[in-house]
Amino acid sequence: MTTKTAATPEAHLAGQPQRRFTVNLRQSGIYIAFALIVVLFTVLTDGALLTPQNISNIIVQNSYVLILAIGMILVIIGGHIDLSVGSVVALTGAICAVLTVQMGLPWPLAVLITLLAGAVIGAAQGYWVAFFGIPAFIVTLAGMLVFRALTLTVLGNQGIGPFPDQIRTLANGFTEGYLGNVGLGPLGGADLLSLLVGVAVVAGFAFNQWRNRKARLSYGQVVDPFPIFVAKIALAAAVVLAVVVQLARFRNLPWVLVLLAVLALGYSVMANKSVFGRHVYAIGGNLQAATLSGVKVKQVTFWVFVNMGVLSALAGVIFAGRLNQAGPTAGNAFELDAIAAAFIGGAAVQGGVGRVVGAITGGLIMGVINNGMSLIGAPSERVMLVKGLVLLAAVAYDVWTKRRGRA
Amino acid sequence: MSDEILVMRGITKRFAGVTALHDVTLAVRRGEIHAICGENGAGKSTLMKVLSGVHPHGSYEGEIVFEGEPCSFGGVRDSERRGIVIIHQELALCGQLSIAENLFLGNERAKRGLIDWNRTNHAAGALLARVGLRENPTTPVHDLGVGKQQLVEIAKALAKDVKLLILDEPTAALNDDDSAHLLDLLDGLRAEGITSVIISHKLNEVTRIADSITILRDGRTIETLPARGVSEDRIISGMVGRDLEHRFPPRTPKIGDEVLRIEDWTVHSPSQPDRVVVDNATLVLRRGEIVGLAGLMGAGRTELAMSVFGRSYGVGISGRVVKDGREIDTRTVRKAIEHGLAYVSEDRKRYGLNLIQDVKLNVSAAGLDKLAPRGWVNENEEHSVAEKYRRSMNIKTPSVATPTSSLSGGNQQKVVLAKWMFTDPDVLILDEPTRGIDVGAKYEIYSIINDLADQGRAVLVISSELPELLGLCDRVYALSEGRITGELDRAEATQERLMLHMTQGQTT
To answer: With contact defined as beta carbons under 8 Å apart, do A367 and A50 qualify?
Structure first.
């Protein structure tokens, strides 16, 4: 290269710290907001929000919305939307009920078939969006009606239940205390296995962070100063351990939490590090540029919808298992919760931006608002009002930071 | 005839560091047809946008005097109120609406807030008669051909009591009959006392219809000539003459074997499948060679490049692409990339960059598979690749984690180039690689192009700036109306000769 390189490194370093800070503020705004909301409702409820049983409730009550939000964030990053997930939840719950309750299939087979049905549903919608070129808004609006109609057909207009115990356990149940309890002094007894799992997760997280840091240093990249690095890990560890301790004091870890943790981790890695995930971001960010960079736009879009179908089916099984019955009105308006979770969690309306962890946090924000307001006895219309305003505020904040960033 | 309806004096207009107009002067006499000529990017359209208020008063320096009064237009509505109407290259008609609705859009014939349809359609009929268009005023505009739509645009201007009509490349999209009709119409309007300013590349039309010609080059007024008896060569020499020294980094070409041959390539327009956009074109590129592709707007340069690169443009494509002696399949972008082709688009914001993502994600976008041997991206490797290009290409950015939207045009272009260099292509097609980039960054881009050729790659440069092609390229093809009309070696290529080839076929 004949170009000059001498002038840049200084400018590069000088510009760095300030910019890092603003970027962090925009990305971490959602987590700060979540922390503030938790603190607010902890105060308002005199600590009832963070009691062992209530934490467990929040997780179990919102598990299916969080699962849907994971699928939805990918759809939204890809620049689309899925309005049909509520109906798909109902239909797949109904399918699962027919398979287990009426046909008596063993539960693992029934769940597998239900997930496949979700994949087929997603493929059907993905076909129209990706290969036929109909806007996802229309396709999934049609799907919302069609799959609700199919639900009614499958169920014959009545609820089907009760579900086998294993499916109910997956939705509602807790891990067994194989290792017995230990005393935690003033906190009382807690499940040892749950605590050990919590410690293992924290240790694994810390080790992974440390390894990443070492790798980045070996590539000569800028990393956080060591004290900040340690403080971040300590903060994350404290939050995780606090939640685990509370859960262990109640009835151990909910199975859906285990499932959610696996999904959150898996999908985060997929979104950030897999070629497929990168292509989803590229398509949402600039469709034409992605096409001209050799991204197979149609295939990627198709598989995003297949994935949404599978996750909807999973949410359908869990929701039906939780109610112990597949009903014709199951999943009503779930799509709105999932979409709101994704946008509160930092997804951009135009696509191309968003994080799996952000969507989960967005879902939790709504869950905490729901739960906290019902604890203080607020009527449901006020809960709805607050959730609506929070959604608007979150997106307004996003638009505002973006506009400021451009100026 | 000395009565001047419009005088623009000392107009200077800057865009984010690029000076588009520099102290431009234009004087138009009442009742004449005044042509403005210049290469693409000479500043013609910008000047007209200043005049019509698209670039409002205060965003430029200099003064506009219309009918003896100084003007400070805040927007298009202001200039239209004074009787200045501009018809843009891209027609601004609503296809779903009827002719009559389009004619009075924003200017409705209404009574107490309700549209008077009888008066609207009747007045529309009268206007259509003036422009010689025999169509029912209630016909939707999208049912009309481009030529008739152009007439609707002119009728729309007449509806606004136009005094000065500005036409930006009015015949660029028209066939010969429609062009002739349009020029006759302008003749007729002149007889009615309407002054016209016409921007055109078609010099035969200019010499036929215009009374005066003002030539712009590099954002400056070069001269104003009376059009009578002026030869096209005279106009061309005014349009192109400028010195080329020191604008291009030195290079000693080391040209090797043929690497890519595009044979008998024909492409049809996707919107009008019977229209030929690229007509039986054949091009040859050799290793280490920089080849130019010259052509006026609408000649089919971008269409040729994009249709070769993964059939990204056009329908009814026929022809062969031969690389290293073997025919290759370039029907999808992925296949084209796998065969070592790269295409850097002329519109980097629309087709080149993911602006909301950072530099490193853009650099890795086309060659991501190289960073992800088992489907998982090695982000550290990705970071160092981006860092490598940031240093070697001198991309000015706080870090490779900065969003590309906050970079300047020249640095954005370097990011796009880095993206394609990372795919390690044998053939690069660069479409307007220096558009909207300031002079200093241009030099750097030229250096990068030279380096690419020195590494043994073949580079095809599409450019509207002839000096750029002459300064950069070892060989230049001229394209006119989809046909290759000339091939000139560096030694024999001059701007005049190129321009002659580029306008060939249009001079009939």
So the answer is: no
Residues of chain B with CATH 3.40.50.300: 4-240, 245-340+425-508
A224 and A304 assigned to the same domain:
no
Contact A356, A70 (CB under 8 A): yes
Q: Distance, in angstroms, between A227 CA and closest chain B CA?
A: 22
Closest-CA distance, A339 to chain B, in angstroms, reads 21
| Residue A277 resides in a domain | yes
Q: Is A36 exposed, middle or buried (0-12, 13-18, 19+ CB in 10 A)?
A: exposed
Domain co-membership, A246 together with A260: no
In a domain, A12, yes or no: no
Name the fold adopted by B4-240.
Rossmann fold (3.40.50)
* Chain B residue at shortest CA distance from A14: B398
Whether ipTM > 0.95 holds is no
Closest CA of chain A from B390, distance in Å: 9
* pTM value surpassing 0.90: no
In CATH, the number for domain B245-340+425-508 is 3.40.50.300
Local mean pLDDT, 10-residue blocks, chain B (508 residues): 82 79 92 87 85 88 91 88 86 87 86 87 91 88 85 89 89 76 90 90 84 89 87 80 66 92 94 88 95 88 94 92 94 94 91 92 93 91 94 89 85 94 96 79 90 95 89 94 92 89 66
Does one domain contain both A69 and A111?
yes
Contacts 24+ apart (CB under 8 A), B331-335: B332/A294, B332/A296, B333/A291, B333/A292, B333/A293, B333/A294, B333/B309, B334/A294, B334/A296, B334/B310, B335/B310
Q: Chain A residues with CB inside 8 Å of B355's CB?
A: 285-286
Nearest CB to A286; choose among B355, B366, B448: B355
Residue range(s) defining the domain that contains residue A240? 177-253
C-beta separation of A300 from A276 below 8 A:
yes
DSSP B300-350: SHHHHHHHHTTT-S-EEEEEEEEETTEE---SSHHHHHHTTEEEE-S-III
Minimum-distance CB partner of A353 among B356, B384, B391: B356
**Is A74 within 8 Å of A280 (Cβ atoms)?**
yes
Contact A5 B392 (CB under 8 A): yes
Task: Tell which of A3, A5, A279 to mutate to test the B interface (max B CBs under 10 Å).
Answer: A3
| Domain-ending residue, one of A230, A253, A276 | A253
- Point out the residue among B375, B384, B390 whose CB comes nearest to the CB of A275: B375
In a shared domain, residues A123 and A216: no
Q: Are residues A202 and A106 in the same domain?
A: no
Structurally, chain A folds into a number of domains equal to 2
Find where tokens 């600590």 sit.
Answer: A47
The kind and range of the H/E element at A95 are helix A85-97
Residue whose pair of structure tokens reads 């994600």 in the numeric block = B361
Give B427-495 as a DSSP string: EEEEESTTTT--HHHHHHHHHHHHHHHHTT-EEEEE-S-HHHHHHH-SEEEEEETTEEEEEEETTT--H
Alpha-carbon distance of B437 to B410, in angstroms, equals: 5
Contact flag B312-A293 (C-beta cutoff 8 Å): no
What residues in A contact B16, CB-CB < 8 Å? none
Among A235, A253, A271, give the residue marking a domain's end: A253
Backbone angles phi, psi at A29, to 5 degrees: -55, -40
Give the integer Cα–Cα distance in Å for B466 and B482.
18
* Cβ neighbours of A268 (radius 10 Å): 17
| Same domain membership, residue A339 and residue A249 | no
Same domain, A266 and A217: no
